[in-house]
TrEMBL record, chain B:
Keywords: Hydrolase, Membrane, Transmembrane, Transmembrane helix. PANTHER family: PLASTIDAL GLYCOLATE_GLYCERATE TRANSLOCATOR 1, CHLOROPLASTIC, PUTATIVE SEROTONIN TRANSPORTER. One of its GO terms (cellular component) is membrane. This is Murein hydrolase (TIGR00659 family). Signal peptide: none annotated. The keyword Isomerase does not apply. InterPro entries: CidB/LrgB.
């Protein structure tokens, strides 16, 4: 468990250092994510070694954003004044994004002559 | 016997109390979620956040004090983001097979999610901090929080907007996609994963295994793409 956790943290560490020193627009952990995919592709044994710890972390993914979520109490005033605009932006754009993604996916499948699943 | 006020002042100085409270609140939220038959609106994080907000309000505890304990949980967002690479790796073969529709749908969904939210927000005169907090709302929470921090947004607002986006997307996806006549499970799942991250992915898995797998792919790819698109789009509307 400890080696796997250490490797995951190393990916994040490399990601943080690289994005900061190169001025990349990606958050460090996202670069870490890409490094993990790349490393597992080059060495499939690594994926099996990391899997138990990764499964454990991802199984509790939603717990990790509770502390940030609680921070909303410090911004309740802002939501009182901006609430309607934010709610509108959020709901409309989410519906549009789902529709756009699905319609484009279907269009390209038909255009390239692929079959539906 | 020691004074209760003395014990309280001891507890407020260390991380133990609020770390414990965070775990218990999430546990209660998760129990409620299961009891309600895993309905999207009974989201365990939302329940935990409301519960903790009430406790903080009642005890007159500041967010700074709370965060000293909760930061250990918050830190795990980074490693969790790295861990999201694993489902992506597991599905690489399926990604390659449907590469063209995936890339096109990813671009369409991701750009729509960011640009339309910013356009509406801007039209209603939201502040720049609010726009920066809103831009990554369709991305999975750990990444969205990282993006918002980088853009000068308020990570705590982003966390809540991400949650609400996920819950809303999970609730409307099935009726919306039915109305559009989309029957391909890959298209249905993928678009939901792109627009509504992990909560949408969980919903997709409830409906269909293929939809769930593609929702997971959509969530992972969108995490990468939004971190590139959001700064560019924000500059456009800033």
């Amino acid at each position: 468990m400890i080696p796997a956790l250490a490797i995951i943290l190393v990916f994040q560490l490399i990601g943080e250092v690289a994005t900061r020193s190169l001025g990349l627009p990606l958050p460090g952990p996202v670069l870490g994510l890409l490094l993990l995919v790349l490393s597992c592709t080059l060495r499939p044994a690594l994926a099996e070694m990391l899997r138990p710890v990764v499964t454990g972390i991802l199984g509790h993914l939603s717990l990790f954003f509770v502390p940030a979520g609680v921070g909303v109490v410090a911004h309740l005033g802002q939501f009182r004044s901006d609430g309607l605009a934010v709610a509108l932006a959020l709901t409309v754009s989410t519906a549009l994004a789902i529709a756009a993604g699905a319609l484009v996916f279907r269009a390209v499948v038909r255009w390239t002559g692929g079959s539906e699943e | 016997m020691t004074d209760a006020a003395l014990i309280w002042s001891y507890l407020t100085q260390g991380p133990l109390l609020w770390l414990t409270a965070t775990l218990i609140a999430y546990w209660l939220g998760d129990t409620f979620f299961r009891a309600m038959g895993r309905q999207s609106w009974a989201n365990p994080v939302l329940c935990a956040v409301i519960l903790l907000a009430c406790v903080l309000g009642l005890t007159g505890t500041s967010y700074q004090t709370y965060f000293e304990g909760a930061q250990f949980v918050h830190f795990m967002l980074g490693p969790a983001t790295v861990a999201l690479g694993m489902p992506l790796y597991d599905n690489l073969r399926r990604v390659r097979k449907a590469a063209l529709p995936l890339v096109a749908a990813l671009l369409a969904g991701s750009v729509t999610a960011v640009v339309s939210a910013l356009a509406i927000g801007k039209a209603f005169g939201l502040s720049e901090v609010m726009l920066a907090s809103l831009a990554p709302k369709s991305t999975t929470a750990p990444v969205a929080i990282g993006i918002a921090e980088g853009l000068g947004g308020e990570p705590t607002i982003t966390a809540v907007l991400v949650l609400v986006t996920g819950i809303f997307g999970a609730i409307i996806a099935t009726p919306l996609l039915n109305a559009l006549g989309i029957r391909d499970w890959r298209a249905r799942g993928f678009s939901l994963g792109v627009a509504a991250h992990g909560i949408g992915t969980a919903r997709a898995f409830q409906v269909n295994e293929t939809a769930g797998a593609f929702a997971g792919i959509g969530m992972g790819l969108n995490a990468v793409l939004t971190s590139i698109i959001a700064p560019l789009a924000l500059r456009l509307f800033g």
